[in-house]
Design brief:
This protein is an alpha/beta fold. It is 53% helix and 10% strand. It contains 14 helices and nine strands.
């Protein structure tokens, strides 16, 4: 009887301790205004395993495209493509259950045999275009079928988009695939953000020419020194650790426990902070590396004022856009260029609470500064492209009347409903461009 009583007392003490931890965690959610809600933390637990579900709900503080050796491999004409041998692929930190083709892009091979009665539409651009393919291609396909833009034919979407791509990579990719014998019935190019932002935030600070691919010296094997390689390994290790802990907490009853959710939030914040420090150190290591030759860095570019770099970058985007259009004209293929929306374009979006929090966190961020400075130039030069006859559509105001959450990070990427809206608009504009060309 005494032993039984002691067991009961120990069990009761354990229950009281658990209750105290739960109450303490609940109090922390109430008192710490900078903490996300329990619901937001629960959503983050579901974030990495199913990218579609994460794209529907998660506000992710880190969203800049990542191009590292384990994920991407160097390509002689395109800079880099995804590694088809990589067993697990991530797009902006979300695990994607989508197969890569032999060219290192998601989905159907650009050289796959054509099916009679099916129009093939190529979609190119950076990470937003890549995510549009992953989360919105069925909507894009169905809307194009319903529009009758290709008559009675069905439509298939082929991705030639990749996180970090910026002009002239889209131009080179289409040219390369056409040389190999690819066949398309239309081309959609969704771009602008990377072209304006990445030269300022990545290329020139890393002593790369603005025209060179994003983080080229991390995918060109001869451009990685031992210190940089160790940092890349450390970043990959921290991502694996974060995923392991996410899987641990994303199970019943832990996902419903306030104490477990608070523990996951603290742990996640620590690991992401450490990873951010490693990524900053990697950027500094690459910038401080010795002279590895012009083939890895390109012609040096120096500027006194940031506006000089934005001017240079946007003109490069404009010229590449013109050449891509002319290439499509030579192939007899309708072309549509879309300037991707972004939350930092003035007046483009009435922020939801989560979006406002993310935008405030990025108030001193170089990405936000570059977007705010670069987009007015993109809009202005895009209007000149349209005046010259290029089918160009500025989408920066397409979410201006929406107060619902659209952006999921403080970079540029959308939530799932945003990609559905973007897919419908892209289909509408392509159908209009095809009708206008007849």
């Amino acid at each position: 009887m005494g032993r039984t009583g002691q067991t009961i007392r120990v069990a009761a003490l354990g229950v009281l301790m658990l209750a105290a931890l739960e109450l303490g965690a609940l109090a922390a959610f109430h008192w710490f205004e900078h903490w996300p809600s329990r619901e937001e933390i629960q959503q983050s637990l579901a974030g990495a395993e199913a990218a579609g579900a994460a794209a529907e709900s998660e506000i992710n503080p880190d969203g800049e495209p990542v191009a590292r050796g384990a994920t991407n491999v160097a390509h002689p004409y395109l800079g880099y493509v995804r590694n088809p041998r990589n067993p697990q692929n991530r797009v902006n930190r979300l695990v994607v259950d989508e197969k890569l083709n032999e060219f290192g892009f998601f989905g159907l091979s650009p050289l796959a045999p054509r099916t009679e009665g099916v129009a093939r539409v190529a979609l190119t651009g950076g990470s937003v275009a890549e995510e549009l393919f992953l989360y919105g291609r069925e909507t894009l396909r169905q809307e194009l079928v319903d529009s009758g833009a290709f008559g009675e034919r069905d439509v298939e979407i082929v991705s030639i988009a990749l996180a970090g791509f910026k002009q002239p990579q889209q131009l080179m990719a289409l040219n390369y695939l056409w040389v190999l014998g690819a066949s398309f019935d239309a081309v959609i190019n969704l771009d602008g953000f990377n072209e304006a932002v990445l030269p300022f935030t990545e290329n020139v600070p890393g002593k790369l020419a603005p025209s060179y691919p994003f983080r080229w010296n991390t995918v060109a094997a001869r451009g990685i020194d031992p210190r940089a390689a160790m940092l890349v390994a450390g970043i990959s290790s921290s991502e694996a650790e974060l995923e392991s802990w996410r899987r641990f907490f994303d199970r019943a009853p832990l996902r419903h426990s306030s104490f477990a959710l608070a523990s996951w939030h603290v742990l996640r914040s620590r690991i992401e902070s450490e990873r951010g420090a490693l990524e900053l150190e990697l950027k500094e290591a690459l910038a401080a590396a010795g002279d590895v030759g012009p083939q890895l860095r390109g012609p040096p570019f120096e500027y006194e004022y940031a506006e000089e770099l934005f001017h240079h970058s946007v003109l490069l985007w404009k010229r590449a856009s013109q050449q891509l259009w002319q290439l499509c004209q030579a192939q007899g293929v309708p072309y549509l260029q879309l300037l991707q929306p972004n939350q930092y374009v003035s007046g483009s979006k009435s922020f939801s609470q989560a979006e406002r929090k993310a935008a405030l966190a990025a108030s001193t961020n170089a990405t936000r500064y570059a977007a705010e400075a670069g987009y007015p130039r993109l809009i202005r030069e895009g209007a000149r492209l349209r005046e010259a006859g290029l089918p160009f559509v500025d989408l920066t105001s397409m979410f201006a009347d929406s107060s619902e959450p659209i952006y999921r990070d403080r970079c540029c990427h959308l939530l799932y409903p945003g990609y559905q809206t973007l897919a419908r608009r892209a289909a509408e504009e392509l159908a209009a461009a095809i009708r206008a060309a007849k």
